[in-house]
Amino acid sequence: MGFVRMHLPEEGEEVTPQAFTFAMEKEKLRKAELRDGHYLWRSNLVGEDPAVLWERYIQLTQIEAAFKTLQSELGLRPLYHQLEKRVKAHIFVAFLAYALSVTLKQRLKALAPGLTPRAVLEKLGTIQMLDVCLPTTDGRWLIMPRYTQPEPEQRLLLHRLHLSLPPQPPPRIKPAEQAATATLQLKM
């Protein structure tokens, strides 16, 4: 729906004020401005209150936005499960991921405007938790769970969000019979 009528010069014709003209379609523009900011919505549900229909439409847009978040920001893709309990589990995990994403988005809005949940997850995603497994002289294993220390930018982000990493877990000893499992973990 154009609001400007233009006359362009023919190919090879010189561009002059007579060959190139334009004019505003003022009546078209006036009619469009009357509808600007208004929705025209048509439904086959004739017996419903318009306010209820509008509320349902808004809910639909929110659901579509949630699915967009699941796919783009959280990277969740459809999986084809064979068992119903796996389908339910997948939906549950996807819902939890979405709920955490919305919570983080709200927290960011208040404490770090301009940051997106995706940017924060990417930035903090490099902090890793690992088990350092060391054999002892008596055949047992010393297991020291450790997370990597945050970089200065990550520390600033954690501080801004009023978050802190938990204290490093204490070391533990595994019996000799579990040494094969620890060795396998070490090689992975």
Describe the protein.
With 188 residues, the protein is an alpha+beta fold. A hairpin with a 5-residue loop joins β3 and β4. It has three domains: 32 residues, no CATH class; 73 residues, no CATH class; 60 residues, no CATH class. It has six helices and five strands, in the order ββααααββαβα.
Distance between the termini: 62 Å
Number of domains: 3
Quickly give the structural class: alpha+beta
Largest sheet: 3 strands, antiparallel
Mean pLDDT: 83
Unreliable residue stretches: none
Share of helix, binned: 40-55%
Order of strands in the sheet with most strands: 3-4-5
Helix and strand arrangement:
Layout: E1 4-7, E2 21-24, H1 26-35, H2 50-72, H3 84-111, H4 117-124, E3 129-135, E4 141-147, H5 152-160, E5 172-174, H6 179-187
Antiparallel strand pairs: 1-2, 3-4, 4-5
Which key terms come to mind for this protein?
alpha+beta; 3-stranded antiparallel β-sheet; 188 residues; 13% strand; 6 helices; 3 domains; elongated; two-stranded antiparallel ribbon
Condensed summary:
With 188 residues, this protein is α+β, with helices and mostly antiparallel strands.
